[in-house]
User: Fold this.
Amino acid sequence: MSAASVAVALALAFAETGRPLQTVVDVTPATLAGALTAVVGLFVSYQAFRGYRRNDSRPMLFLGLGIFLVTALPFVVTTALAGPLGTSDAAAVLAWTILEILGLGSILYALTGA
Assistant:
């Protein structure tokens, strides 16, 4: 498929729908704060995973998993997936809550072995 035929296909798709074939994401201070939280959470999770590999410590593995589930994954699910896919706010909040419960359970298991 040549570049010209791709351009024609995109032009026809725009003409049929009346809107561009893009997803616009509003970057608000809340989105930036969530992104910063996710980045820091990924860093801390990675450090816990390194501790697990170095010391062969299962609690460190579950601690890293829990921090990842509480900080990074909810941001990705609600911002990067739920917004562009057009899911309802209730579904996004439900996904966020489930991930936080799983993450806190993992952290609890890491700290107590329960």
Remarks:
- The radius of gyration is 20 Å.
- Helices lie at 3-17, 29-55, 58-85, 89-112.
- The chain has a mean pLDDT of 84.
- Residues 58-85 form the longest helix (28 residues).
